[in-house]
Each structure stands twice: as C-alpha cells, then as structure tokens.
Amino acid sequence: MKELLTTAIGALLGSATGLLVALQVWRVQRAGDFRQKQLSEFYSPLAGWVKKTRAYNTFDQRIWPEYEEVWQKLVTKYGNHIPESIEEDSKRFRKRVDYANDQNRKLIVPLYRRMLEHFTDNYWLAEPQTRDYYQAFFEFVEIWIMQEEEVLAFELKERIRPDMKQVSAFFDHLEETLTRLQGEVSRGRT
Question: Model-level pTM?
C-alpha cells in the first residue's frame, strides 16, 4: 500500500512538474510570438519609413548647399549689373525649390500620415516607451498637414512649426527598439 501511495504521489508530482514546465514553455513561446508580431507588424514598417524620410532629408542637406553656392557665385558674378538672362537662371534654380515643395506635398507628408495611421492602428503593439512619443508625433504630422493645406494663418507660420528635434528622438527610439527586439528574438529571449 505504501509503495502504491509513493508511486501515485511520484506520478502526481511528475505530472505537475511536467505541466508547469509545459506552461512555462507556452508562456515563453507566446511572449516570443508577441515580440515577432511587434517586429513584423509595428517596428519594422515604421523603421523602414523612418529610413526613407531620413534619406530624403540627408539628400536635401547635401544638395541645398551646392545650389546655394552656385547661386551665390552667379549673383556675385554680375554684381550690380544683373543682366536679363539672370531671369532664366533664376527659373532653373526655382525649379529645385518647386521640386522640393512637390516632394514634401506628394511624398513626405503622405508618408508621415501613413506612419501616424500605422502607429494609431497598431498602438497595442508599441512598447510603453514608444507610446510616450505618440502625442509629439501626432502634433508634428498635424502641423505639416496644416501647412500643406494652408490652414495656418500667415502670422502663425513662423510660431507653429513641426518640431524636428522631438521627432528625431522618436525616430532614433524606433530604430533602437527595433534593434533591441531583433536581438531578443534572435537570442530566444523575450
């Protein structure tokens, strides 16, 4: 009888231990699945769009000084005796400004809108620290839209501007979080 009771208790403890291990494995797997979902459905798309907006910005920062330098040389060359041909030169340079404005209106602002929509729709996948950036990013996008739609009064255009510093911090955070989560998933940590 004692042996039977010992065997039954041993079997029960073994089953309980097996169940606890299985539950722990299941929890770890679920957490890993959630991290995968965060990466594939939230952070990766946002980080890709961040790269794209930063690529446009980096290119602009590279090209505008070149335009400025050439324009200054052209104006300096003529001094106070500006010929009528400068009008043609001015039109060529103005095309670059128009191109940049078109690019903002047709590519950059819609991309910011898409990012904000994605953030809103997938908010549940965001880490708590990422959620802290929502309001600043919302305002950034909204101000861009208001500028593009010419909603802001002329007197307010200089006072109400998109805050690139806050958004840069958000963009940096997205890239850092993506890298951290990728590392956790690749190491099997959750």
Answer: 0.74
